[in-house]
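With this grant's support, the team has encoded backbone shapes as discrete tokens. A representative record is reproduced below.
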Amino acid sequence: MREVAKRAGIDHSTLHYYFSGKEALIDGVVDHIVQDLAIGRPQTENAEISPRELLSGHFNALIRQMERTPEMFVVLVELHSRAMREPALRAIFAKNDRAWKTFLVETLQAGIQKNEFQATLVPEVAADVIISLVRGLSTTFAGRAGLMKRPFQQLLHWLEGDAASTAKGTRI
């Protein structure tokens, strides 16, 4: 905590005033990053946006943010790696993952109902796959966020499956 305060250019006691310890500080950092990345919160004013467009917009927002502030993703990857060994960190990520997963599950369910995504899709499982894919792509393409576009497009294509071609009147 002393080193963090020193690097931030603040007094150690000031840091302790806002954060009771290391876990509270990390929780605050992760919450800040998650809010800044808008994970789990759609960035749209249009209530009529389709579930597919919402999910695509979510992916595009992640790519834009990774292009603007790649260091945030580096911090998330590092903290997430530590969370595998530290239960307190794991709990912090679990809390944030629940909100993200809820957003994804609701979007996928709406997409199934509107015949935009495959009827056989299991939203809870697909949400877990999306979260894992985002984490993996963030690590794989660190500093090269544009390369994430094609995997996200492929994922959307898989989620749509026959639903998209049926809705358009053609088969894949």
In short: Residues 87-113 form the longest helix (27 residues).
